[in-house]
Design brief:
By secondary structure, the protein is mainly α. The chain contains two helices and two strands. The longest helix is centred in the C-terminal third of the chain and has 65 residues, at about 40-100. The termini are far apart.
Length: about 100
């Protein structure tokens, strides 16, 4: 919810800023030169920035998901080993009790 509020506030800020700067500007993009509205340049730049941030965060989420899966696998292995050790410990205690009773 907080992220949505921050995004909406930024969207309003960029929109107001773009509308206040609606003059036509000359833009050079590699070999192309064109005159377009500064508001359009601002919107497109903000959109490209948002897409880049989204892709980076998506990559980070996948990385964390992979790490979480690795940790869960390790946890399952440790739990299995603990269960095995508990069984071995009970067997050892039972053997000790039996040996004491035989003496």
């Amino acid at each position: 919810m907080n992220k949505l509020i921050v995004v909406l506030v930024l969207l309003v800020f960029v929109s107001v800023f773009a509308v206040m700067n609606a003059a036509s500007v000359s833009v050079n993009f590699f070999f192309i030169k064109m005159n377009i509205s500064l508001a359009l340049v601002i919107f497109v730049s903000a959109l490209i920035g948002a897409i880049i941030v989204f892709l980076i965060s998506l990559f980070d989420k996948f990385k964390k998901l992979k790490e979480t899966d690795k940790i869960k696998k390790k946890l399952r292995e440790c739990e299995a080993e603990l269960a095995k050790l508990k069984v071995e410990n009970v067997e050892k205690e039972n053997n000790e009790i039996i040996q004491k009773q035989m003496e």
